[in-house]
Design brief:
Layout: E1 4-5, E2 10-13, E3 24-30, E4 36-38, E5 43-46, E6 52-61, E7 67-77, E8 85-91, E9 98-105, E10 109-116, E11 123-130, E12 134-140, E13 150-156, E14 171-174, E15 177-181, E16 198-202, E17 206-209, H1 215-222, H2 242-258, E18 266-269, H3 273-281, H4 297-300, E19 332-338, E20 347-349, E21 360-363, E22 379-382, E23 391-392, E24 396-399
Parallel strand pairs: 1-7, 16-20, 19-23
Antiparallel strand pairs: 2-5, 3-6, 4-5, 6-7, 8-9, 9-12, 10-11, 10-13, 14-17, 15-16, 17-24, 18-24, 19-21, 21-22
Length: about 400
């Protein structure tokens, strides 16, 4: 299928060959991107509202009730939006010890003015919420050993808008939203710790690693590869403790900050358990992030039914609707939270798990597990010092409160 773009009207007329007209079309698996619909006449139309790749199975039925189906991938790309900020500074006419600043921007929002004596170390000087496209303000002049001071302006994101992706090949944007965390009591394969179902609001958008961290990425960053299944560096790294995963996030944050590739106020972390399940579901409420049953699991996951007893290179299966690969199976993934045997119930915002406890959460199932242990709601936990050949992680790039 041809790709679409967020905010741009989309239309595609499907066609059938053979059989007896008229034809009737319907979605029988997966889902179309948000904002798009399929008519019974075979027209996909609407205006996409979110970026990502969706897998959808479409069935066509002819007048003789003969049916045929096919699975498609439809990618919606983010709209290109130029985000320009320009800062002009001059000595105040009223006060020689102050600067008059003029900020021009392509859109309203929060802007932070930073100062530096050497263009290397930057310190926040002030913040302003721009209601229009131009803002004038006065700030005290700062002394510098060099006799010079430099200023720059950087946009601060609220979490409801998407900053420019610093690594489009590695990260997918997860928009803010609300979902039901956990599983209903009637879900096949359910465990006791998957409830009570809790309404969770993720108030700030974040980026999630499209793939589990690979052996190549881990080895390049940390100088070692603890994995048991070596021979292909594109396999997910495994045999890592929770502490190892956290150390990788810290090292990655530092390296990307030094390279100037991180948005202001963001850092790499392990996703919270709520962020993980929200990203895995990608707007679905079904047992898996693509359908209610696991009949098509082999298209999305490496699990006991198709893995041949080993993990596989990342990104070889279909992604979910938000462009994330291997959220089901391949290797379990560490989360940042401590483990609790139940959810709080009711309504919560940005939960981070309990404040105490010895075990940490891991999610997603692995190459070793049966289908029901790869469900979106399935939870597991281990001591943070444990290493297993089916346990790895993926990163999240999140705004710091």
């Amino acid at each position: 299928m041809p790709d679409g773009t967020v905010g741009t009207p989309y239309q595609l007329n499907l066609a059938a060959q053979g059989g007896t007209p008229p034809y009737s079309w319907s979605v029988t698996g997966g889902s179309l991107p948000a904002g798009l619909n399929l008519s019974s006449a075979g027209v996909i139309s609407g205006t996409p509202t979110g970026a990502g790749t969706s897998s959808v199975t479409i069935q066509v039925k002819d007048a003789a009730n003969q049916t045929a189906g096919r699975t498609f991938l439809l990618t919606v790309e983010a709209a290109e939006v130029e985000d320009m900020i320009r800062l002009t500074a001059k000595v105040s006419h009223q006060n020689n010890n102050a600067w008059e600043l003029q900020i021009d921007a392509s859109k309203p929002g929060r802007v932070q003015v930073q100062s530096s004596p050497d263009l290397a170390q930057w310190t926040p000087a002030t913040e302003v919420v721009m209601s229009g496209l131009r803002e004038n303000l006065t700030i005290p002049a700062l002394a510098a050993e060099t006799g010079k001071v430099f200023y720059r302006a950087r946009r601060l994101y609220s979490g409801t808008e998407q900053p420019v992706n610093p690594a489009p090949d590695r990260l997918a944007w997860i928009p803010p939203g609300t979902f039901l965390m956990g599983s209903p009591s009637t879900e096949p394969g359910r465990y006791y710790d998957e409830g009570p179902r809790t309404e969770v609001t993720i108030s700030r958008g974040f980026w999630m690693g499209k793939h589990e961290v690979t052996q190549r990425e881990y080895q390049e960053r940390m100088g070692t590869n603890p994995s048991s299944f070596t021979g292909d560096l594109d396999r997910p790294v495994e045999g890592v403790t929770w502490h190892d995963a956290v150390a990788f996030c810290v090292a990655l944050t530092q390296a990307e900050q030094e390279a100037g590739r991180l948005p202001t106020g963001y850092e790499y972390r392990l996703p919270s358990e709520a962020q993980w399940e929200y990203a895995c579901r990608a707007g679905t409420t079904t047992r898996f992030g693509f359908a209610e049953t696991g009949a098509d699991l082999a298209q999305y996951a490496w699990y006991s039914g198709n893995s041949n007893g080993m993990p596989h290179a990342v990104g070889r299966k279909l992604p979910n609707a938000w462009g994330l690969y291997d959220m089901h199976g391949n290797v379990w993934e560490w989360c940042g939270d401590r483990y609790a045997t139940s959810y709080p119930g009711g309504t919560v915002t940005d939960p981070l798990g309990p404040d105490s406890g010895s075990s940490r959460v891991n999610r997603g199932g692995s190459w070793y597990n049966a289908a029901y242990n790869c469900r979106s709601a399935l939870r597991f936990n281990d001591l943070p010092s444990r290493r297993y050949s089916d346990l790895g992680f993926r990163v999240a790039l999140v705004s710091i409160p």
